[in-house]
UniProtKB/TrEMBL annotation, chain A:
<feature type="transmembrane region" description="Helical">
    <location>
        <begin position="192"/>
        <end position="212"/>
    </location>
</feature>
<dbReference type="GO" id="GO:0055085">
    <property type="term" value="P:transmembrane transport"/>
</dbReference>
<dbReference type="InterPro" id="IPR035906">
    <property type="entry name" value="MetI-like_sf"/>
</dbReference>
<dbReference type="InterPro" id="IPR000515">
    <property type="entry name" value="MetI-like"/>
</dbReference>
<feature type="transmembrane region" description="Helical">
    <location>
        <begin position="70"/>
        <end position="89"/>
    </location>
</feature>
<keyword id="KW-0813">Transport</keyword>
<keyword id="KW-0812">Transmembrane</keyword>
<keyword id="KW-1133">Transmembrane helix</keyword>
<keyword id="KW-0472">Membrane</keyword>
From TrEMBL, chain B:
<keyword id="KW-0813">Transport</keyword>
<dbReference type="InterPro" id="IPR027417">
    <property type="entry name" value="P-loop_NTPase"/>
</dbReference>
<keyword id="KW-0808">Transferase</keyword>
<dbReference type="GO" id="GO:0016887">
    <property type="term" value="F:ATP hydrolysis activity"/>
</dbReference>
<dbReference type="GO" id="GO:0016757">
    <property type="term" value="F:glycosyltransferase activity"/>
</dbReference>
<comment type="similarity">
    <text>Belongs to the ABC transporter superfamily.</text>
</comment>
<dbReference type="InterPro" id="IPR003439">
    <property type="entry name" value="ABC_transporter-like_ATP-bd"/>
</dbReference>
<dbReference type="InterPro" id="IPR017871">
    <property type="entry name" value="ABC_transporter-like_CS"/>
</dbReference>
<keyword id="KW-0067">ATP-binding</keyword>
Length: 262, 272
């Protein structure tokens, strides 16, 4: 299928959905409106709400807050994951001792930590950052741990035979291997950083996209809730696109599925 | 012998502890000397421990008994005089061909600016001058072996250890690589210990062919001198009458071991 055709079909899906939504929420079918406006609002209202946010500029502050929280959560969580992942992979004893606790904390649904973080860190951005960190940390940690442990035996022996010291092995073998594993989970970890931020905001805050949605919901403003959701999706897609660009730059050496003939 | 011995294994025994506590003896009483500038090929049936022996010479494995001497000095730790060409892909996948070759020098502390032109020279001499910017996954199996060869040779090791380096390649590429190896080796005649299961390849390349018995507890059971004239061309040397006679002679010994090796490997499967 050619690109323009594909794009046209993709747009068609959106158009059909929106038109159906608009029609079913405004035009009675057999004397009954199938999507009551109170619960479903309608696309025009949602759209005008989004436009209002952007025209008045109020949305930028919330987007900025959510973005800041996501970036902080990602950076702190990744740094921690890389450090601890490396440490555990190089010290099997430490890894063995902490193993049950790591599993235990990871098994915990992170949402239940949100009230504690709000209690400890207040309603500002740091309680959201903390929630995001707990999500990002484990993804990066497991990947780095795996990446360091699964370095090819042959590549490692080759490094040794070429005369690499432990430090040089770290720099030329372990580190790139761990990074490649970490980058392969970049989409997931960035996604979770955003989830942490938004869920944190939703549960208690004074700014951010999650706050916006929670506020709208509090006054039964369904159009506001949907508008917040759409802005949030667009925001995540943009971030995801950015990640794809970064990934392409950093993982040039990796075979992709299309040239996997190798 | 007047020339110093590059690699000397004296009564080397290699054993592994198995998971259930038993000890598996891979190689027993191996006695092998490689003189400076000599090309020695080790041939043996599958699972006879020829790669194990090579890893002992490299210092990657410690012998359970016996000694390893490199240029008349006992080997402690890794063999720093040796370059090792692995059977499996051993290039750093995240480095370009050029960086993969240059790293050999950079490890020694050569500044990158000096290492890169030399690496480019080595890539050209293995016929990959135009592929410097490619990553390993963009190269064919034969091209990756060429890069690996350049990566090892740029460090100018005194000894070359090769573990079925051309094993994964197709028949024609193997012969081309064999000729390339002989050309490069002819330039400065390093001591080479070359492990292969291919007797023809061994005779075509080496000065001496060493045969190992089937494992476990395999021993060296034969040692033939190959007096075919050098420089050789692998394609043509196979047509030589002397080549055929030698091949027949060695094969008569090797054949029994190959059969034993197969019998043992099937038995081992049944035992499991």
């Amino acid at each position: 299928m050619s690109r323009p055709t594909l794009f046209a079909l993709q747009v068609l899906v959106a158009v059909v959905c929106i038109v159906l939504w608009q029609v079913l929420s405004t035009v009675p079918v057999f004397g009954k409106i199938l999507l009551p406006p109170f619960f479903f609002s309608n696309p025009l209202d949602v759209f005008s709400q989004i436009v209002k946010w952007f025209v008045s500029g109020v949305i930028w502050k919330h987007l900025g807050i959510t973005l800041t929280e996501s970036i902080l959560a990602f950076v702190i969580g990744s740094a921690g994951g890389v450090l601890v992942g490396f440490w555990f992979a190089r010290q099997p004893l430490v890894a063995a001792v902490f193993d049950p606790y790591v599993k235990m904390v990871n098994a915990l649904p992170r949402v239940v930590l949100a009230p504690i973080f709000a209690l400890w860190l207040g309603l500002g951005i740091w309680s959201k950052v903390a929630l995001g960190v707990t999500l990002v940390f484990f993804i990066v940690f497991f990947n780095v741990y795996q990446g360091v442990k699964e370095v090819s035996r042959t590549v490692l022996d080759n490094g040794r035979m070429l005369g690499m010291s432990e430090r040089q092995l770290m720099q030329h073998v372990y580190w790139p291997s761990a990074l490649s594993w970490m980058f392969s989970s970049l989409h997931t970890s960035v996604g979770f950083a955003v989830v942490g931020a938004v869920v944190g905001e939703y549960l208690g805050s004074a700014a951010g996209l999650g706050y916006l949605i929670q506020q709208a919901e509090g006054v039964f403003d369904v159009a506001g809730v949907f508008a917040g959701m759409f802005v949030l999706s667009a925001f995540v897609i943009l971030i995801d696109y950015g990640v794809t660009l970064v990934e392409r730059r950093l993982l040039v050496w990796r075979p992709t599925a299309s040239d996997g003939r190798g | 012998m007047s020339t110093p011995t590059a690699v000397a294994l004296e009564d080397a025994k290699v054993a592994f502890r198995l998971g259930d506590g038993r000890v598996y003896t891979a190689v027993e009483k191996a006695h092998l000397a490689v003189a400076q500038g000599e090309f020695v090929a080790i041939v043996g049936p599958t699972g006879c421990g020829k790669s194990t022996l090579l890893n002992v010479a490299a210092g990657l494995l410690k012998p359970a008994a016996g000694s390893v001497r490199i240029f008349d000095r006992p080997l402690a730790g890794l063999n720093r005089e040796a370059g090792y060409l692995f059977q499996a892909d051993a290039l750093f996948p995240w480095k370009t061909a050029l960086d993969n070759v240059a790293i050999g020098l950079e490890i020694k502390g050569t500044p990158r600016a000096d290492a890169l032109p030399q690496a480019q020279k080595w890539l050209t001499s293995v016929g990959l001058g135009a592929f410097a910017g490619r990553f390993p996954h963009m190269l064919s199996g034969g091209q990756r072996k060429r890069v690996a060869l350049a990566q090892v040779l740029i460090r100018d090791p005194k000894i070359l250890l090769m573990d079925e380096p051309f094993g994964p390649l197709d028949a024609q590429t193997r012969q081309v690589m064999g000729n390339l190896l002989l050309d490069l080796w002819n330039a400065d005649r390093k001591a080479v210990l070359f492990v292969t299961h291919d007797l023809e390849e061994a005779i075509a390349l080496a000065d001496r062919v060493v045969i190992m018995s089937a494992g476990p507890s395999s021993r060296i059971i034969g040692d033939w001198r190959v007096s075919l004239a050098r420089p050789r061309d692998i394609f043509e040397v196979r047509l030589d009458k002397e080549f055929h006679e030698l091949h027949r002679e060695i094969w008569s010994v090797l054949k029994d071991e190959v059969m034993k090796g197969y019998a043992q490997s099937t038995q081992a499967v049944e035992a499991v």
